[in-house]
Structure prediction request, 481 residues.
Amino acid sequence: MASIAIIGAGCSGTLVSRALASRVSQRSISEVLLFDKSSTFGPGLPYGQDTNDEGFLLNMKSSLLGVDSCTAGDFAHWLKDSSPQVEGLMQEYAPRILMGQYLQEVVSDIAQKFNHSGIQFARVNASVRNVRRTSAGFEVHTANGVRLVDYIVLAVGHLRKRSAFPDIEQYFSNPYHDLSRIKKIPAGSKVGVLGTKLTAVDMALLLRRIGVAHVHMFSNSGQLPLVRGLIPTSCEDVAFEKCPGKSILDFFRWFRREKTYAPEYVGFITMRDVSVRLEHEIEAAAHVRDWQLWLDGSKGWIDDYWLRMSTKEKRRFYRKYQGLWMSYRHPMPLANALKIRSMLRAGELSVHAGYKSMRLKANEHFEVDVSDSLLELDYVIDATGVSGNLAKLDSVLVENLIDSGMLSQYEFGGVAIDPETHQLFEQPGAYAIGPLTQGSLFYVSAMERLVIHAERVAEHIVKSQCPARSVHNPLYVGARS
Prediction:
């Protein structure tokens, strides 16, 4: 029987724990240790109390979310059972913080299931600084000591990335990590947001709430996300299609050829005027948009496309199509679109394309070069997401694992893993899930994909032989750093 350490107790770690708990009848597990530096297990960065604002919404309707791989919508059922105040959110876009509360309860249910099966489940409130392979298994190092286990799962979530302007307090490299500092930006400031996708929208709306004078969003494309249309209560009448062909390029050709979006407005793909495009999007969002449902359906096979793509095709995708894909595949809720429109109309927001460079001037203001002007800003928030370059991650654990050879950089980002099992390259018994695997796989953050990935990890662990040893209780070695 094996002992397992799951490093990270956010959504990914919770889902791996749940997948293991569903396999307790196989009697292959002796203990599961869930490590996290936070004392709150379940929410992680995307849904945590300290990394959210009251205005941050989930980007999918509650009825489509949950931790059950077989039945969509268990989050909505939880909302219904929680209280009358939140029941009305079942068909809406709930605040992200409610997802965090839901995941906390999921962790509690997992603990009960393990305990009823006689398997120890421990939530360890400690930051993991290193993992070392020994002849006896894996040593998991924290400031409080060392645990010896048979398997490890890296579920570290969205790690901090290194700042492009270290030690400059006016620059925020990690919007959600730095949220408490961002909320202290003085009213009346001019603030830039690098990026124009969903995180950038969150930041723009937060900045409006705290009263900054003007928000400048800027990126290469200068394109905001599209707007989510109505979700039908039943999808039986929607003709779901799977794109023919064997590459993402085939998908784009098919999508343009089908033109299911054509009745919505001329220039759907080519329109560049931000305000005009947003008006068309808000109008179109009053209806079911079949093409959005087809794109949603791509979550089941997009990883297969990604794995079949050649190196040349992947490079081309990153260079030419990634921004387009993210804009169309991940629309924003209508409520957010209406607020963004209000900011544009009031002159509180500008959106710029053609971002070229940024520098810090002698007066400690930022100068940003975009296609239409030079912007002078008091503060800048980097909302472009986590870097796929491991060297740019600000993580002691990742640094130590790279130095020891346990982690290796994948060519297209993240760590190298076996995409079928999530096992680290040439590291039997060690697994990774979540944002750290971006590159080896395509979608690694959406909950519906994480559920599937967690099942793969758990299934491989329980079916494999212990890589080094088999014990009933992991050894506590003592206080070491």
